Amino acid sequence: MQTSPDRHEYPAHWEADVVLRDGGTARIRPITVDDAERLVSFYEQVSDESKYYRFFAPYPRLSAKDVHRFTHHDFVDRVGLAATVGGEFIATVRYDRIGTDGMPASAPADEAEVAFLVQDAHQGRGVASALLEHIGAVARERDIRRFAAEVLPANTKMIKVFMDAGYTQKRSFEDGVVRLEFDLEPTDRSLAVQRAREQRAEGRSVRRLLVPGSVAVVGTGRTPKGVGRSILDNIRDAGFTGSLYAVNKAFPEDLKELDGIPAYRSVRDIDGPVDLAVVAVPAEQVPEAVTECGEHGVQGLVVVSAGYAESGPEGRERQRELVRHARTYGMRIIGPNAFGVINTSPDVRLNASLAPVMPRPGRIGLFAQSGAIGIALLSRLQRRGGGVTGVTGVSTFVSSGNRADVSGNDVIQYWYDDPDTDVVLMYLESIGNPRKFTRLARRTAAAKPLVVVQGAGSAPQGHAVRATRLPHATVSALLRQAGVIRVDTITELVDAGLLLARQPLPTGPRVAILGNSESLGLLTYDACLSEGLRPLRPLDLTTAASAEDFHAALLRALGDDSCDAVVVTAIPAIGEATPGDAKLAEALRSAAEQVPGKPVLVVHVELGGLAEALSAAASTAPQPDTAATGTRRLRPSQQLPPPVRAQEPTPEACSRLIPAYPAAERAVRALAEAVHYAQWRREIAEPGKVPEYEDIDEKGAAGLIDAMLARGQGLTLGTEETCELLGRYGIAVRRAVPVFTPDDAAQAADTLGYPVALKATAPHLRHRADLGGVRLDLADEEQLRRAYAELTELFGKPEELRPVVQAMAPRGVDTVVRAVIDPAAGAVLSFGLAGAASQLLGDMAHRLVPVTDREAGSLIRSVRTAPLLFGWRGSTPVDTPALEELLLRVSRLVDDHPEVVAVTLEPVVVAPHGLTVLGASVRLAPPPARDDLGPRTLPVY
User: Which pLDDT value is given to residue 641?
Assistant: First the structure.
């Protein structure tokens, strides 16, 4: 590395792993003097045409002077970056700072010339686009604001790289050369381009793991025991459509096949390409396996081996090295300590997992960090026959284990535009990057339901990610804001997923209830009320109801404009034979098909074969004998419920598959989640806007903040500074005068005007009117002096009480407004009613900043105590538009100035006309770095 005194220290933070357009990975890092041989080797592999485009003339080889110039950088005015795979260069980019005359310059010149060279074999992989993002970020860090590039007109690929980047640019043509100039400040379009590329690249990187054309299982034993051999057998028995290989370095040299599967001692010995390697060797042998896979060109790894971060510090370091090693060869990893992956598509049929039975094919994408939870989810879906009238099951399944590389974010990117997945179910023990997850979740939820069980775990072991400081409940609220259907248990996860997989979304909360049990109908009615739905009076068909009665009643309910969904309750008739179950199932399915557009759910209580009959109602395909398929015989303890090997029903049949639930509460809870999700989908169609206020002085506030931060790295502002800063954003704080004697209090009251309030502001008494530290409506000096004496007698000396006098505000509802910048989740705006009861119940609502006008309105209405603002029990409604405006102004403040890391307005008294901010505090600090605005990178280890 450079050590010369005229050069800056090597900028290690510029190093990054990136996912390229085709899903492979590359490492981007600064070029140093140690790279001379790599640079020469790289240049020799570039075609003459590409060299001509770079230097505008034939340039067959680099001179010693060229090599010196391209490897010696000061990392300020001259910077070079290289993209590497396997330690070798595949592309380079360089900038040189220039002045207005186009000659080399130093700061304060803020323009630089930039040039790329990409090895021909790697052109079209998005390498230049990734390098442009990173060299642009480096340039901004070095106070370069604009790039200039000269490109030959025939070099259309490079022109397209610049033009598609989304920056504000100018284009000119002179002396046979196209000159492009563009500002490096990110724009809405450049961020949109960057995120679209991120989605494509990360989605394709997962596709390489889930849709391989060939698989090698490394660590396959010769006997039918052990992890590697079990996975090999599972892949074979599922009917994998690609090439399958068994690999074990302990195989005899003369062994050519293992139960009909080609066998090899090393991945290197395999003649054809290998897309995916499942690594099932002891942890100490994994590095050798990774090297063999990388050198053979394997595209991705599923590492089921244990002994990594879950085993302690030594394992965490082993895990970091595993990821670095795999990325060196451009491979991504699921795992280590993974349960495996499954793809039920008939074109793939991959069961590269420890699940002994291939799950039922369907439209649900399933992600679980925990293998045990993954087993439980697969088993529940299988036991319930998909839980619906048909064969709805899993499209793809990923169990990520230690989540060292591929995470839930990556799999969401894949499912976002996967045509085989309609619903996404995720069990997340933790969310390592909440800011990115909520962004991806919001986009995905706008297209297909995303249901999440969120554990209370910490960041995954071995990850160098910033942990959120937000409470678990706050993170859950932010997920809901992003459209995530947040549930608490895996039972609720499956219940909601099965409803959403095949039923239309309800258009409102009105629920019709019909069935043959009055008691079960009333239970369902009460459950609807508990979930905030609006149930209609249950229709009791009596226990004598026939299948035809159910059919007619369901038709009437579905045709009734006063309901948005129907819950059918059914109990078995005494002595009724099982054929009646099939008849009832067909009656319900037939009615639902005749009047589409509303969701239908069935609540059945110990109804024998109804769930199975409902499943059979949508498909009449023959069920082949599983014994004829070659599936291994397993002990009962090893078996999941038997797979249904039926043909996928037609889209028309699938559209009316009816989920069946064993309890009214479970059915109604799933329906309530669907109602809330449908409402969110309708709201995002008109997302609202962030208003502009003419009286906001953004520049003046920035000047105040800079001046205050010059005094220190982090500080809580005093009263006068707080009022001045908030005033720049049109937020007025009612003046509170400190008073240390009764005479001070009387003088302050004379100045402010009676009536006044006397408050103790000591930390243990602040905002605690219930403790008696506040005296209101003091009409004259006599009352004021008496109140002062009472406070000092009860709580101590004035120095301990810190009393203040404040003019009385109009009566109203006391509320609290807060904003905080979390290093992982970003800026969060919170609202609730003031008082011990709200604090005790945790009744606060939260939104990510910036908040739109629609979100401000929903934020106010989200708290359970919101009725107090809208005239509860005959009280006068308060001025909620004024409250919404206050929330929007606070949102603008923290969004415009990330140095404002915390704001608290308490109490905010909202009256029938207007509001009054009686207390405020502001904290300033250098803002946490935002990784969502920088270039695309994979997590750092």
Answer: 38
Report the distance separating Cα 742 and Cα 789, nearest Å: 8
Find the distance separating the first CA and the last CA of the chain, reported in whole Å. 21
How much is the pLDDT for 687?
A: 81
Collapsing DSSP to helix, strand or coil, 185 comes out as coil
- The structure tokens listed for 437 are 């997850």
Radius of gyration of the chain (CA): 33
Q: Measured between alpha carbons, how far is 12 from 464 in angstroms, rounded to an integer? A: 15
Q: Which residues pair with 510 in a beta bridge?
A: 534
Of all residues in the chain, what percent are helix, strand and coil, respectively (each to 5)?
40, 20, 40
pLDDT digits (tens, 9 = 90+) for 798-840: 888 888 898 998 999 999 999 998 877 889 999 999 987 788 7
DSSP of 340-387: EEEE--TTT-EEEES-SSPPPEEEEEEEESSHHHHHHHHHHHHHTGGG
DSSP strands (E only) in 849-895: none
What pLDDT score does 645 carry? Answer: 36
Q: pLDDT at position 278, please?
A: 97
User: Helix, strand or coil for residue 148?
Assistant: strand
Q: Which residues contact 705 (CB under 8 A, 6 or more apart)?
A: 725, 897, 899, 900, 924
Q: CA 810 to CA 940: how far, in whole Å?
A: 54
Cα→Cα distances 77→7, 30, 134, Å: 10, 13, 16
Question: E strands within 611-755?
Answer: 660-661, 715-716, 736-738
Question: Could you tell me if 143 and 107 are in contact, meaning their C-beta atoms sit under 8 angstroms apart?
Answer: yes
Q: Which pLDDT tens digit goes with each residue over 838-863?
A: 887 889 999 999 999 999 999 999 99
Residues of the chain with pLDDT under 50: 1-6, 386-391, 575-579, 607, 617-655
Calpha distance 256→706 (Å, rounded): 72
What is the C-alpha to C-alpha distance for residues 342 and 371, in angstroms, rounded to an integer?
13
Rounded CA gap, 788 and 798, in Å? 9
| Angle of CA points 235, 237, 243, to nearest 5° | 50
Lateral strand order in the sheet of 78-85 = 16-19, 25-30, 78-85, 88-98, 111-118, 146-151, 177-183, 169-174
For residue 726, what are its two tokens? 């908030």
DSSP per position, 777-822 = EE-SHHHHHHHHHHHHHHH--HHHH-EEEEEPPPS-EEEEEEEEEE
Look at residues 728, 697, 723, 609 and name the one whose alpha carbon lies nearest to residue 660.
609
Number of H helices, E strands in the chain: 28, 39
- Other C-beta atoms within 10 Å of 881: how many? 12
What's residue 369's pLDDT?
A: 86
**Residue 879: how many CB atoms within 10 A of its CB?**
18
* Confidence at residue 644, expressed as pLDDT on a 0 to 100 scale: 34
Dihedral over Cα of 638, 642, 648, 652: its sign = negative
Question: What DSSP assignment string belongs to 12-41?
Answer: GGG-EEEE-TTS-EEEEEE--GGGHHHHHH
Report the predicted TM-score, pTM, of the whole model to 2 decimal places: 0.85
- Looking only at the bridges linking them, the beta strands covering 900-910 and 813-822 are antiparallel
As a whole number of angstroms, the distance between CA 855 and CA 802 comes to 38
The number of CA neighbours under 13 Å toward the Cβ of 221 is 12
Contact 81, 135 (CB under 8 A): yes
Supply the pLDDT for residue 932. 66
Cβ(570)–Cβ(603) below 8 Å: yes
